[in-house]
Amino acid sequence: xxxxxxxxxxxxxxxxxxxxxxxxxxxxxxGYFFIHVYNAATEAYEEIERPDGNSELRNTAVNIGKEPxxxxxxxxxxxxxxxxxxxxxxxxxVTLNPxxxxxxxxxxxxxxxxxFTEEEAGKYAGTHKINAAYSYGSMNDYGANKLTVxxxxxxxxxxxxxxxxxxxxxxxxxxNALGGVTVDIKExxxxxxxxxxxxxxxxxxxxxxxxxxxxxxxxxxxxxxVNNIYSRDERQRQFIEATIDEAISTNTLFxxxxxxxILGKNVTTSLSPTEIFQxxxxxxxxxxxxxxxxxxxxxxQIIDRIYYFVPSEEGLDNISNILxxxxxxxxxxxxxxxxxxxx
Length: 343
Hints:
alpha+beta; 42% helix; membrane; LytR_CpsA_psr; transmembrane helix
């Protein structure tokens, strides 16, 4: 019996060809995406030297992407020092809980008063602002990121599992690569443009898409704060949420090559390439409306003619307890106490 072969219609051939093209393009782009991000992450990787490979405030290292994790975001002011021994202009603690999908952001004022030992700061040992930790750690061969992480750990009494450091150039270039970031400006103000000889950048009330230089001025302004409601810390948290919304948009996928180059040159992090992909997998669809923001309670004081932010003991305890709960450390501490009593 002769079997009659059906001829495939032109539209079916066309449809299959398009589908095959889409599959090939997707696979090729996926490989392109992976290679660029992996190379950038590898270039940025810089582990913190720790005796057991994890914070002294943890019994064991966390499993990134599966267990609650804390990150310290460090924005380094390096434009005035040619990239050497800059200070931490911005310190933000982020907690990520993959079990609950909770994310918290806590700003640490750069003027927070802390103590430095001789081992940590050498001849600069004594009372200083916390933003000096990055500079002293670098000059004293203690480790800029390491000392900054440890000072935040001591202040909040929580483990900092990983860090991400970005310099001002990287911040500016990243915002430009994203095509700008849109924020809703609550109050008008101005700030100097560090890249244009100190020219003023004016911010009017309302929604505005900021370019890199404008974004840097937006998050840095602190000397002309309009009120406590729209403080520097609040603007930084607002900008982070807006940047996340922009970064997870579809358009960003087509800029991965440019973004990866910027990150590789201007970012250092203790997150390995594998850990970065694990976090991306868990938080790629994060809802920024659910991010919880906190700030330290305290007051500004002039001590020995120097301005400091002095956090209250109650405020520190409150923030510490909140973050421990987010990291699920409160239950662990209770378990440790029971074990000690039983022994």
